[in-house]
Amino acid sequence: MQEQSQYSAAARVPLIKSPSLRVPHPVVLPPDIHPLPDSVTPYFVYPFTLESHILTLESSRRSTLEAHALRHEAYLRARADEKERRKRDALRRIAPGFEPGEGHLLVPTKRASVVAPVSPPQPPRSVMDDLVDQLAALESSSPPA
User: Which of 32, 45, 101, 123 is 20 to 30 Å apart from 141, CA to CA?
Assistant: First the structure.
């Protein structure tokens, strides 16, 4: 008995070559190409002549970055000082003589002539007491009949 392959049905299907496909031309190397050497270690030579150039560039770059950082810090400090100055000016407009950074506050002084004598605290009154007082005031203000 003939063994059936899973691809036996596909064996009878005709293949059609697409006209857009083509076989690439073989690559031809030029005769003067430089082959790689057996050892590449001679190519890894460090040129110490560049080191001084790189170091001077790096030092100038660092000094430039430090100058920019200092200028940036000075700008931020000036901005914070200006903001604080404006805040103090606004507070001085409201309360002249006020200095928040000095630690002392202006405390009002009491005058003897302005101070009212302190009366002893009165017990809380009820609603009925208020009503009786109002009715008494109405009776005394009304004309006799």
Answer: 123
Q: Tens of pLDDT along the chain (145 residues)?
A: 456 788 888 888 888 888 888 888 999 988 888 877 888 888 888 878 888 888 899 999 999 999 999 999 999 999 999 999 999 888 888 887 777 666 666 677 787 765 566 777 777 888 888 899 999 998 888 776 5
Contacts of 5 (CB under 8 A, 6+ apart): 11
* pTM of the shown model: 0.37
Rg of the chain over CA atoms, in angstroms?
A: 51
Give dist(CA 73, CA 65) in Å, integer: 12
